[in-house]
């Protein structure tokens, strides 16, 4: 049987280009083959086109609560980034492994594969599970295809560990995210007669003003959580497209915006405030808003037994806090009704950037953490 180190496995995982718009099946097949060679039971859940798959693996008794490890297999694009090396050929230098996805989050997947193989050689009193998803980077989309089936694959776990890069610190929460697309309409006409027509860009400006006003209100009197760098929910316009020529009154402008809400806040009420402000003006009838995607925030009580357990398995200096980026954790909480924590190797500060890397020491720390975790299942 293969006995690769987590670093070796990571280098292989990096070689699979699993950018979100591409298939992840080569990687999934590789993981499946590796786990099955170690006697781990594996189930795949394909998307409708059979071009991508989620993976669920389990070792140990099926009728007891255990621990679920979770990770996503997709990575963000490399186009337009100035990489020093081929992003899909892992390079190890200065005790770091460089390559797309090393930190976010194939490093954790490699460690989890080793942990599952080690667990297969032990007699577990409680099971160890692994769930790998696709299309996390474009809105936590892929994991939704397997969430409903997880309850038939296992007893709801004692804890789910999402292995996003936290430098092996424990995170108990993160903000949720809702994505919206607004079609702002107008009336096309000659700019010499501009006042006779409704300008779609002016409509978009009215929407932007409503969003800015709500952001100001939320920042002053909304729900607050000091564990975050930005302690309140945020509204952000990321893209505006409109207009064909300077001398044509535009009849269409598209605005893409988002709300990142702390878990204690109601994203629906925040957006309703935007709509109400828009309706109080003159352009409401010209705006058509569609919600594109949403995933919930995560809020796990730091006093629960699962936090105490994981803290005991990490170095004494390990902190417990919250993270600024989103994960699939809130979806697991909703579906499985189990506590979810985020903890994994690598730093989010290098994710999505050229020359992304993970320190080999971080891999070793994760390996040691998961080995101690297995001991608790014996």
Structural overview:
- This protein is 31% helix and 25% strand.
- The strands form 5 sheets. Strands 1-2-6-3-7-17 form a 6-stranded mixed β-sheet, with helices on both faces. The chain has a 4-stranded antiparallel β-sheet with strand order 11-13-9-14, covered by helices on one side. It has a 3-stranded antiparallel β-sheet with strand order 4-5-18.
- It is α+β, with helices and mostly antiparallel strands.
- The chain is elongated.
- The longest helix has 22 residues, at 200-221.
- It contains 9 helices and 18 strands.
- Helix 5 crosses helix 6.
- The mean pLDDT is 96.
- It has 2 domains: 6-174 and 297-375, 3-Layer(aba) Sandwich (Aminopeptidase); 176-294, Alpha-Beta Plaits (2-Layer Sandwich).
- The protein starts with 5 loop residues before the first helix and ends with a helix.
- It has helices at 6-14, 25-37, 102-120, 144-153, 200-221, 267-279, 305-312, 329-336, 360-375, and strands spanning 41-46, 53-59, 67-72, 91-93, 96-98, 128-133, 159-162, 170-174, 176-185, 189-190, 234-242, 248-249, 252-261, 287-295, 298-299, 320-322, 340-342, 357-359.
Please write the CATH class name of the largest domain: Alpha Beta
Helix content: 25-40%
Lateral arrangement of strands in the main beta sheet? 1-2-6-3-7-17
Give the uncertain stretches in residue-range form: none
Q: Let me know the CATH homologous superfamily of the largest domain.
A: Zn peptidases
Radius of gyration: 23 Å
**Principal-axes shape call:** elongated
Distance between the termini: 23 Å
Please give the largest β-sheet: 6 strands, mixed
Number of strands: 18
CATH topology of the largest domain: Aminopeptidase
Strand content: 15-25%
Number of domains: 2
Architecture per CATH nomenclature, i.e. the level-2 architecture of the largest domain? 3-Layer(aba) Sandwich
Strand/helix succession: HHEEEEEHEHEEEEHEEEHEEHEHEEH
Helical element count? Answer: 9
Q: What is the averaged pLDDT score?
A: 96
Category from helices, strands and their pairing: alpha+beta
